[in-house]
Structures are given as C-alpha cells and as structure tokens.
C-alpha cells in the first residue's frame, strides 16, 4: 500500500510540476544554491559537498508545448534538447542557479553554449569526459577536470569544499546507489511484484529530492515491496536498452509491460545509477570519482570505451537475467543510441536473440502503434 500511494503521489508530481520541489527546497534553505544536471552522468557528489542541491533536469515530458526553443535548434535534434531549453526560456528554471552539461553528443554540447548565451545569470559548466579511456593519463586528466569544477562550485557556494565534505557526499550517494541496485535486483527477480513504472518513479524522484530524503523513501519502499505477493502473469521477459538520456513518457513505459512484457532491466536514468559498486571513500576523493568513472561505471551509449564491447555487455545481461528478448527503445534523432543499435542488432542476430526496435519522443501522446508492435512481437514469441 505504501508503494502504491507513494508512486501515485510522485507520478502526479512528475506529470504536473516536477520542478516545484526545487523551489520548495530553496524556501527551506534560504541562500542555498541548486545545480541542474543534464543527463547522462554528473559527479553530483561535488555539488552536494558544496552544500548545494544537484537535481536532474531531464527534459519536460509530454506536457510542455515547445513555442520558443524550436527557433534555436534544427528540426532534426532530439526532443530533450529543445524541451530543456524551453524550460529555461519560459522561466521554469528560475530556481536553478547553475546547469552542468557534458560531452555526450553534439546537441548536448551545443545546448551548453546556447544556455550560456541565453542565461547569463546562471553558472553554466561543461564537463569534458575523456574520449580515450585506455590511456594511463586519463585518470589524471579527469581528476583535473573535477578540480576545475570543484573550484567553480566553491565560488558559487562561497565556501571551500574539503576532502572530508567530498568523502561524506560520496558515502551518501553510495548509499543511495546501493538501494537503487537493490530495487533493480528486486524487479529482476520478482517483476510481478514491481512494475517498471513503479521502479522508474521510485528512481526518478531521486533526481529531484535531496539524496538523504530519497534514501529514506527507498528504505521504506523496499520494506513494502518485500511484503507483496502478486501472481506472475504470462509475459515474456525482456531487457530494455536505449533510453539512457531522453526519457520516454510514463504511459509508454506502462504500455510496454501491459503489451505482454516483464522488463527485467533497463537503462532509464542511467547516470543516477552509474556505478556497479561503491566508490571508495578513503584516499583522494576527486581521484576516486575519476577512477570510478573509468573503471567502476556501467557500459553506456555516451561513454567511449574502446576497452570493451558494449554489445557483449548486452548479451551478458540477457544471459545473466534469463531474459528471452531485447527491446531497443531509442529517442528519435539520438545519434549515440542509433550508433549503438547498429552494434546491438548485429550481435543479437548472431546469437539468435529476438529484438524489437522502437523510437519515442518526449512529446508523444499516442501510444497505440508502439503497443501494437510490442503485442505482435510478444505473440510471435509466445506462439512460435
Ligand atoms: S537524447 Fe541522445 S542526442 Fe539527445 S542529448 Fe541525449 S544523448 Fe544527445
């Protein structure tokens, strides 16, 4: 009951006014700053260690009319770039003191510059993640990049960030990520007791609320989930891949499962669940964060890691979870997702693992077509 109520409450918040929670936090913490984090991954610990609130600015869902941002971008870029800019242009980011973008793709790179030009009162940061993960110098490079960001946030927050501050923040976000991994493991083992929409909402609120609050919610939610005892339905088990940056509408996620799938794993909100294990707390904290990006993070469409084959990771995931198929759910015009699809498709076909490719946009309203495609796919597997 607790989880149902909680999910209903936060689904409404996510649908109607996700950014209101930022203004509420600022009211309770006068003088404190908020930093908006564009997907995919941000080292939020550095922001938190400065006494600021890191929040995910992850587009605007399907309730926002794009009236101004279209004129700043070509028609063939993904929705999240335009909706994020629109949020700024219509004043919805007025409680946000800074934004951070990353070198994930050309549209995100350009969005950082467009924000800098259009919002001179905001601190716009841009993290250049390494393009060569195999070089022995990469960890030094990324540590220096994090030092630069730290200096910038010290100026904004008007205080020094000590190593102890950073260690406390790393410990806190480790705890949050442990609980998120637990949530995901629970859904993988008992998908009939936790729907993907519920799993998504419980994760997404962690991108808006302070980590301390989210941890308390997750602990309570896990207690409630362990008491559930739903009957499994006759559905196929799938892995969902491709939605690591722009997020599909909740109605679409719901429709995928209702069409006959149990989603055992996905890459929604990937940057907030970015590590496979805890980041070490002892030692040089910025170096630990940099090293974690290089060596402890999940495979990702926006990480250029020549040391490994992404498609092999996907195949391993299918095998380890016991899934029988893969849904590729990619944002329209998302180049990194499209590049990955070429690799995934070849690997899945070679291994004889069925897959279905679907495209989405944030502003989608009609889900019948996607649902019918998934239903047909499921039937073809069930009655093969
Ligand atoms: S959805 Fe894809 S193309 Fe668009 S900003 Fe994100 S990674 Fe870049």
Topology:
Elements: H1 2-16, H2 20-28, E1 34-37, H3 44-49, E2 53-56, H4 79-89, E3 98-102, H5 106-118, E4 123-127, H6 138-157, H7 163-189, H8 196-204, H9 211-226, E5 236-241, H10 250-258, E6 261-265, H11 285-295, H12 310-321, E7 325-331, H13 335-351, E8 355-360, H14 368-382
Parallel strand pairs: 1-2, 1-3, 3-4, 5-6, 5-7, 7-8
Helix pairs in contact: 4-5, 6-11, 7-9, 10-14, 12-13
The structure holds iron/sulfur cluster.
Iron/sulfur cluster (SF4) is lined by residues 78, 80-81, 104-105, 107-108, 245-246, 302, 331, 334-337.
Strand order of the largest sheet: 2-1-3-4
The ligands found in this model are:
iron/sulfur cluster
Number of strands: 8
Strand residues, percent: 5-15%
Q: Helices and strands, in N-to-C order?
A: HHEHEHEHEHHHHEHEHHEHEH
Rounded average pLDDT = 94
Q: In angstroms, what separates the terminal alpha carbons?
A: 38 Å
User: By helix and strand content, what is the structural category?
Assistant: alpha/beta
What would your notes on this structure say?
The strands form two sheets. This protein has a four-stranded parallel beta sheet with strand order 2-1-3-4, with helices on both faces. A four-stranded parallel beta sheet has the order 6-5-7-8, sandwiched between helices. Helix 4 packs parallel to helix 5, helix 6 packs across helix 11 and helix 10 runs parallel beside helix 14. Helix content is 49%, strand content 11%. Strand 1, helix 3 and strand 2 form a beta-alpha-beta unit. The mean pLDDT is 94. It is an alpha/beta fold and 384 residues long. It binds iron/sulfur cluster. The site of iron/sulfur cluster has 15 residues, from helix 4, helix 5 and helix 13.
């Amino acid at each position: 009951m607790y989880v149902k109520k909680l999910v209903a409450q936060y689904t409404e918040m996510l649908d109607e006014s996700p950014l209101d929670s930022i203004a509420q936090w600022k009211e309770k913490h006068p003088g404190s700053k908020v930093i908006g984090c564009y997907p995919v991954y941000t080292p939020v610990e550095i922001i938190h260690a400065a006494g600021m609130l890191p929040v995910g600015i992850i587009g605007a869902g399907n309730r926002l009319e794009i009236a101004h941002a279209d004129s700043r971008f070509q028609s063939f870029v993904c929705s999240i770039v335009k909706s994020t800019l629109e949020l700024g242009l219509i004043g919805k980011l007025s409680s946000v003191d800074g934004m951070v973008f990353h070198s994930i793709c050309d549209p995100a790179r350009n969005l950082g510059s467009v924000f800098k030009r259009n919002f001179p009162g905001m601190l716009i940061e841009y993290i250049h993640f390494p393009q060569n993960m195999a070089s022995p110098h990469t960890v030094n490079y990324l540590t220096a990049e994090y030092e630069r960001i730290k200096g910038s946030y010290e100026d904004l927050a008007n205080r020094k960030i000590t190593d102890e501050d950073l260690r406390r923040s790393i410990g806190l976000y480790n705890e949050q990520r442990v609980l998120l991994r637990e949530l995901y493991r629970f859904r993988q083992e008992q998908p009939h007791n936790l729907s993907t929409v519920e799993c998504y909402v419980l994760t997404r609120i962690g991108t808006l609320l302070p980590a301390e609050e989210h941890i308390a919610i997750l602990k309570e939610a896990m207690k409630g989930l362990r008491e559930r005892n739903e009957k499994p339905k006759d559905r196929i088990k799938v892995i969902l891949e491709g939605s690591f940056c722009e997020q599909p509408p909740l109605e679409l996620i719901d429709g995928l499962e209702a069409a006959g799938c149990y989603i055992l794993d996905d890459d929604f909100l990937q940057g907030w669940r970015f590590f496979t294990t805890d980041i070490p707390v002892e030692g040089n904290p910025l170096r630990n964060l940099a090293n974690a990006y290089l060596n402890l993070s999940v495979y990702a469409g926006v990480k250029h890691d020549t040391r490994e084959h992404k498609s092999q990771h996907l195949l391993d995931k299918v095998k380890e979870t016991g899934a029988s198929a893969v849904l590729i759910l990619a944002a329209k015009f998302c180049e990194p997702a499209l590049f990955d699809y070429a690799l995934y498709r070849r690997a899945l076909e070679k291994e004889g693992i069925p897959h279905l490719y679907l495209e989405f946009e944030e502003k989608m309203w009609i889900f019948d077509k996607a649902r019918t495609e998934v239903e047909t796919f499921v039937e073809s597997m069930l009655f093969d």
